[in-house]
Specification:
Length: 180
Amino acid sequence: YFLLSESLGVKNRMINFQIPGYQDDLNQLSTRLGKIWNAFLRGQLIITLLTIIIYTILLGILGVRYYYVLALLAGLARFVPYVGPAVAWATYGLVAFYQGATLFGLEPIWYVVLVVAVAWIVDTLMDNLVVPYMLSDALKVHPAGVLVAALIGIQWFGIIAVVLAAPVLATFILFINYAI
């Protein structure tokens, strides 16, 4: 990406479709595709930063040690659906269990249950409310369409399809609208 970005026009010569009579259409499609994928990347970065902020505050309030590192882990876990949050929850639980002093003087096991349950609730709210609406707003697609695309994508292509469901749906809609 950076090589193409800094190449001063080489990217225009590398991918150069020449279809007589359709060059304006191809240029418009290329511009719109760029906007879709850039909006997706910006949305993912905003979601990651929002997750880091939420977990920094939440884990700090709960008194978990190393909450700033764990919040960074939560933000990075957003890039790996399902597996990432599970690894983050396990890490929160281990840190909470072995940190010694707990909030409200709870036994370590109940403190772990509290920390992991709160993290699970936050991730569930993020995954079901914040992320679909944020990506659908950035990509101009309906949140239900993003969720359906993610469900179909995971059946056909696996876990990577969940991450790319929103921009692929927006790209598909762009091509369908162009064809119509």
